[in-house]
Amino acid sequence: MMTLHIALAKGRIHKQVMAYLQESGYDFPTYSEESRKLIFADRSGQLKVTLVKSPDVAVYVERGATDIGIVGKDVLVEECFCADVYEIADLNIGRCRMAVAGVAGNEPELTKRLTIGTKYPRIARQYFEKNHYSVDIVKLNGSVELAPLVGLADLIVDLVETGSTLKANGLEVRDYIMDFSARMICNPVAFKLKKREIEAICSVMEKRKAAGGKR
Ligand SMILES: Nc1ncnc2c1ncn2[C@@H]1O[C@H](COP(=O)(O)OP(=O)(O)OP(=O)(O)O)[C@@H](O)[C@H]1O
Ligand SMILES: O=P(O)(O)OC[C@H]1O[C@H](OP(=O)(O)OP(=O)(O)O)[C@H](O)[C@@H]1O
C-alpha cells in the first residue's frame, strides 16, 4: 500500500476526524489537539495528515499536494470547488444549516436596501437575488452574530447547529438556506493511482458514519 495524504480542515472537522482515526487504530505519535505542528504521519505509514484552513483544502487536493481532503460542504459551495476534484463521500459529521437571522422581534423594513453580514458572500448573494431582495453584502470573518447588534448589518447569513449562539445574542432564524455536512474530496489522478488506499479510508469513515457519527 502507498501512503495516502489527507488535508483536513483545521477546527471542528480535523479534531473529529483525528479522533475517529485514532479510535479506529491509526496511531499518530506526534499528534495532539494542542500541537502547533501541521503535518502528522501515522506509525504504520498508511496515512499522512496535513491541517489546512478550510478554504484551502480543495486547493491542496486540486493541485495534487494531497490525495484527498475533508472539508465542510459550505466551504465547497462558497468557494465553488466542484469541477476539479471529486466529492467521494458525505461523512455525516459537522452537520449544520445555513440560515438567515436577525434581531428577535425586530423585522427589518424589506423595501429598503438591506445590509447582510456574512462569512459566505456568494451563498448570501445567491439567496437574496433568488428572492428578489436588493442587498449590500459585508464580508466578515467570524463572530458574525455581532453585526446586527451593533448596527453593522440588518441581517446575517451564517451557520447554525444548536442555535445557542443565536439565542445567546438575542437573534432568531428568519429562513433556512441549505443543510451542510463534511465531505471527502479526491484528486482525480489519486483516485486512479491510490484506489485501494482511498477505499480503505472510506470504509473506516463509513463505519463511523454507520455508528451514528458520534465519538
Ligand atoms: N456550529 C457548528 N456545528 C457544526 N458544524 C459546524 C459548525 N460551525 C461550522 N461547522 C462546520 O465545520 C466547518 C469548520 O468550522 P470551524 O468553525 O471549526 O472552522 P472555521 O470557521 O473555518 O475556523 P476559523 O474561521 O476559526 O478559522 C465549517 O466549514 C462547517 O462545515
Ligand atoms: O448554532 P451553534 O451551535 O451555536 O453554532 C453556530 C456557530 O458556530 C459557528 O461559529 P464558530 O464557532 O466557528 O465561530 P466563528 O464565529 O469564529 O466562525 C457559526 O458561525 C456560528 O457562530
Automatic annotation (TrEMBL):
ATP phosphoribosyltransferase catalytic domain segment(s): 54-206
Q: What is its EC number?
A: 2.4.2.17
Q: What class of enzyme is it?
A: transferase
> Where does it live in the cell?
Cytoplasm
Select a single GO molecular function from the record's annotations and give it: ATP binding
UniProt catalytic activity: 1-(5-phospho-beta-D-ribosyl)-ATP + diphosphate = 5-phospho-alpha-D-ribose 1-diphosphate + ATP
Instruction: From the UniProt record, give the pathway where this protein acts.
Output: Amino-acid biosynthesis; L-histidine biosynthesis; L-histidine from 5-phospho-alpha-D-ribose 1-diphosphate: step 1/9
Q: Which UniProt keywords apply?
A: Amino-acid biosynthesis, ATP-binding, Cytoplasm, Glycosyltransferase, Histidine biosynthesis, Nucleotide-binding, Transferase
Q: Which GO terms describe its biological process?
A: L-histidine biosynthetic process
The protein's matches in InterPro entries, at most eight in alphabetical order, are given as: ATP_PRibTrfase_cat (IPR013820), ATP_PRibTrfase_CS (IPR018198), ATP_PRibTrfase_HisG (IPR001348), ATP_PRibTrfase_HisG_short (IPR024893)
Query: What is the annotated role of this protein in its UniProt record?
Result: Catalyzes the condensation of ATP and 5-phosphoribose 1-diphosphate to form N'-(5'-phosphoribosyl)-ATP (PR-ATP). Has a crucial role in the pathway because the rate of histidine biosynthesis seems to be controlled primarily by regulation of HisG enzymatic activity.
Domain observations: Lacks the C-terminal regulatory region which is replaced by HisZ.
Q: Which family does it belong to?
A: Belongs to the ATP phosphoribosyltransferase family. Short subfamily.
Fetch the PANTHER family from UniProt: ATP PHOSPHORIBOSYLTRANSFERASE, ATP PHOSPHORIBOSYLTRANSFERASE ATP-PRTASE
Quaternary state and interactors: Heteromultimer composed of HisG and HisZ subunits.
What is the name attached to this protein's record? ATP phosphoribosyltransferase
Species source reads: Anaeroglobus geminatus F0357
